[in-house]
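Protocol step 4 of 6: structure prediction from sequence.
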Amino acid sequence: MNIRRMLLPVFALALAWAGHANATTSNLQSPAEYTPTVTFTLKTDIGAFGMGFRGVGGAIDGQLNPTLKVPAGAIVQINLIDGDGSMHNIRLPDFNVLSNDVVGKDASTAVVFRADHDGSFDYFCNIPGHRAAGMDGKLVVGEAEAAPKATAADISRAPDDLPPPVGDRAPKHLEFNLTTEEVTGQLANGTTFTYWTFNGKVPGPMLRARVGDTVTVSLHNDAHSLMNHSVDMHAVTGPGGGAAVMQVPPGQTRSFTFKALKPGLYVYHCATPMVAQHIANGMYGMVLVEPAGGLPRVAHEFYMMQGEIYTTEPFNTHGHLQFDVNKLLAEQPTYMVFNGAVGALTTDHPLKAKVGDTVRIYFGVGGPNKTSSFHLIGEMFDDAWAWGALANRPEHDVQTISVPPGGAVVTDVHFEEPGKYILVDHALSRLEKGLAGWVEVTGPKDPGIFRAGN
């Protein structure tokens, strides 16, 4: 029998308990300063909501991921109790604080540090995957507001920002106007990036037509742009998907007209060299060409796309990040995101539905490089039109579906049980690069479908 393997969990548990008595300290000057002036207790919790820190005692009692408010210069002690038996810790990178791991139910540890600069700062569990699952809160020092002020514009498109169904109508002539804008946007809390966009958001607007429509697309390149931009639409039959006649210098406008010949969900993107850079910086969107008679009605429709961001600085660096062409060519993204930013479809714009609703998700991959294994944790796709090919019959009861760069899928999901469902790429290490979304479903529980045991 391997004695070392048997003893490792015991040692880990002992260390976790020892951490309670021997608190980790950071940025303190002398033993006299170890005495905390503010103390909080957090207990880890796992439930239908995901993972989180639950406040214990005082004003934060019972709150999930409570905002911890302290005066400037306070010496802060945070006690961490393992409430669920899994391994956890707590990290506050802005104060150089990382606790011991707690391992086993009711194991505990503590950290002590001086809150020596004002503002709103993250605390979170540093175990891989736990922050993405919900273990993320705020420490507010001084007079800062509880929610951090955005350091740049919110460039993430809300998933319910899409045009209504076409329905059963005759073909007609449509006109769509796109503007390319280079904007500084919020990539993550405290982190900004220079995005290149269609209409100021990522993804660009969803364009909606029906088969047989004649469509005119006008593209205006903002006068403040530093680059030429263009548009290549996969729904177009013609040279370059339109890009051959749509290379637009700053301050100019060009247009083209095409006939929507085939139904489907199609990606569009900038096709100005270096094409991969323009796409990686946010220049992608989708065109939905509905079949004659339209699509079956559903309670909610949502629009989301997966993208990659390549920066010189490592993941979770604060400040303004720089695009890295070498990482792009090596296909090593620093961030992977839904709708342009970390948290775009979790804390910022989660998808919302009710028990009994059927939800349709129009999902595409801007890329430019990585294939997505699109998956909804805790549900199946009742219907899935693979590759966005709406002329085909959908597949049924699909767990995970592969979507290549420049590809798309249409999925319908009927929700029978309330809870928080997580949208992921099932290449799950990508969660650690920011790739997650939530579907928050409210309504009555059905114990005949799902119930917890003892």
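Step 5 (inspection) to follow. The two ends are 32 Å apart (CA to CA).
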